[in-house]
Structures are given as C-alpha cells and as structure tokens.
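Memo to structure team: turn this sequence into structure tokens by end of day. - J.P.
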Amino acid sequence: MTPEGRVKNEVKKQLKLLGAYQFWPVQTGMGAKTVDCLACFRGHFIGIETKAPGKKPTPLQETTLTKIAVAGGISLVIDSVDMAKCLPELINVGTDFALK
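Reply from structure team:
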C-alpha cells in the first residue's frame, strides 16, 4: 500500500468511528474537481485532502479547500497516519467550533 493509501485508510477508519457520513469521489476528468473526501459530522461539512507525508496539495486542491472554508465548512489536509488519528480533535467534535 502507498503512503497516501495508509493515510486514506486511517481517515476512513476515524470517520467511521465517529459515525460521520463520508464520500470518496472517483475523479473521472469530467465536471468540477473536488478533494479526496467529503464528509458530514454533527451538521459540519468537511473537505479532506489526504497526502503522503511531506506532500502538499496542488493549487486546484488548495482553491477547493479555500472555497469550502469560505462557505463555512471545515477544510483539512491530512498528511500522516498520526494526524489522521487526531481527526476527532481536528474537527473539535465536542463543540460547534472547528478548525479551518
């Protein structure tokens, strides 16, 4: 499994443990692009881009994450399994406030 694949698997696991809705769109080159994962938890819309350790989002991915944040959603770039394990803290599940 690739390093990014390990990160994706951990994000999926953490979202499932939280009971969050998650959608991992398969990009086909048609229509608008988005990030790796679109999720919803306790009324919060979450956009997550996963990366291998040390890798950065593309300019298009950054633009998408910014649009999500400006619209009031939570935008995250998760680039390690350890960071993925902190997903509950990153979205601050105990309050209405969430990191962007």
